[in-house]
Amino acid sequence: MAYSEIGDIFQGKEFNYDEYLEIELKYIKASKLFLEYEKCKSLIVMDLEYYIDEGKFLNRDKDLIPFYKSLEEGKIISIDSLEIIMKILLRGYIWCNLICQNKEKTSLRYSSDFYLFFVSQNNLKVSTLKQEIVELGLYMT
Asked: I want to staple 44 with a disulfide (CB 3.0 to 4.6 A). Which of 8, 19, 88, 99 is the partner?
C-alpha cells in the first residue's frame, strides 16, 4: 500500500496511517538488514529526482524537510540516516538510487508500489538474509 493510498478503501476497509507505518517500518528494517549483510556503512545518493516541492509536504512530514533540503546528487549519507531518506523515498517525495560507498555494485533501489530491489554480487537467495526478510512479513524472490 502506498503512502498516497492512506484514507482509500480496500476490501471495504479504510487504509490508515498506522497501517502504513507498519509497512514502511518493515521496508526500513529489511533495507538495514541488507546493508548490514553487505557490510555497507555509508551510501551515495545517485540519480536524484524531486517529485514533490517542500511546500507540498503533508503536515505530519514537516520534520523530514531539513533532510530533504540537504539532499543532492552524490551526497554521502551514513547508515544512521537510512531511516529518514527511506521515509522520504517511500512516501514519494523523491526518487533515487542508494549506492554503497565501499561497494559500488551494491545498492538499494525503490519503485512505486513498494518494490524494493537489493542489488548485490552475493547470492541473496541462499543467504540467511532472505529468511530474516521473510520473517519481517515481506516477500523476497
From this structure: 99
- Which residues neighbour 7 within 8 Å (Cβ) at sequence distance 6 or greater? 14, 15, 16
Q: What is the pLDDT of residues 23-57, one digit of tens each?
A: 999 999 999 999 999 999 999 999 999 998 888 99
Amino acid at site 107: S
Q: How far apart are the first and last CA of the chain?
A: 19
Rounded Cα–Cα distance for residues 64 and 69 (Å): 9
